[in-house]
Amino acid sequence: GDSVTQMEGPVTLSEEAFLTINCTYTATGYPSLFWYVQYPGEGLQLLLKATKADDKGSNKGFEATYRKETTSFHLEKGSVQVSDSAVYFCALTGEGGAQKLVFGQGTRLTINP
Amino acid sequence: DARVTQTPRDKVTEMGQEVTMRCQPILGHNTVFWYRQTMMQGLELLAYFRNRAPLDDSGMPKDRFSAEMPDATLATLKIQPSEPRDSAVYFCASGSDSRAGQYFGPGTRLTVT
How many C-beta neighbours within 10 Å does residue B7 have? Predict the structure, then answer.
C-alpha cells in the first residue's frame, strides 16, 4: 500500500538557519503530495501541496518540489524563525480520487533564538 | 475564511459516561474525516464519510464508538461508554478533492478520568 517516510526528529536549529525535512513516498501512479504543520495546541494546517511531477508548492517561505524520479517531496526554508517551531507532517493522497490521506510520522522542529 | 469548527474544545468526563463531539465541515466539502491523536500512537484515522455516507470506519473501536452525519453541516462522533484510554485529541477534517487536501478543525481534547 501507499506509505510516507519522513526524516526522524526532533530537529533543532538556530534562527536564520536553512531547513530541510526529508520526505519520501511509495505509491502507484501519481499521488498528490502535501505538507501539513501543527503548532502547539492546534490542529493541522495545510502548508503547501503539489499535484504533479516537477510542481513546486510554496507558502510562508517554505517550498517543496514533487520529484517523481526520486519519489521525494522534501520541505525547505532558507531562513527559519522561532515562530516556525512546530510539528511538520508529509502526506499523500493516491490516484483515483480517494481523499484519504496517508501521513508520515511527523517531524518536530524547534528553532532557538 | 472558511474553517472547520469543532465543539467542545475541551471535555473532561468520568469513565463510563457518554461523550459526543461535533464537527461542522466547510460548506461545500463532501468528505468528512475523524482522526484521533495521542503521543503514543500519533495520528490515527477513525472514520470518514463522503456525501454523508460512511465509507470506512475500520479505525474505530466498534463496540463503543459511533460516527454519523445527520446532515451535510454536522458530523458527530460518540463514545459510549468512555474509558481512560480514549483520552486524546480528536480532530475533524473536511475536503472536496483529493488534490486539494483536507482542512482540519482545532480539535476536541478529551480527558476521561
Answer: 13
Q: Residues A28, A95: contact at Cβ < 8 Å?
A: yes
Identify residue A61 by its one-letter amino acid code. G
Planar angle of CA B33, A8, A106, nearest 5 degrees: 15
For residue B33, the chain A residues in CB contact (below 8 A) are 99-101
Type of residue numbered A50: A
In the chain, the amino acid numbered B70 is P
The pLDDT score that the predictor gives to residue A4 is 95
Q: Is the peptide bond before B25 cis (omega within 30 degrees of 0)?
A: no
* Residues of chain A neighbouring B107 (CB-CB closer than 8 A): 42-43
Q: What gap in Å lies between CA A27 and CA A1, rounded to an integer?
A: 7
Q: Is A18 helix (H, G, I), strand (E, B) or coil?
A: coil
Question: Tens digit of pLDDT for each residue in A31-61?
Answer: 999 999 999 989 999 999 999 999 999 999 9
**Minimal CA–CA distance to B98: which of A31, A10, A19?**
A31
Residue B19 · residue B79 · CB < 8 Å: yes
C-alpha closest to that of B9 among B111, B80, B82: B111
Tell me if residue A83 falls in helix, strand or coil: helix
Contact A103 B103 (CB under 8 A): no
Nearest to B42 by CA among A108, A98, A50: A108
Cis peptide before A10 (omega within 30 of 0): yes
* Assigned C-alpha cell, A95: 490516484
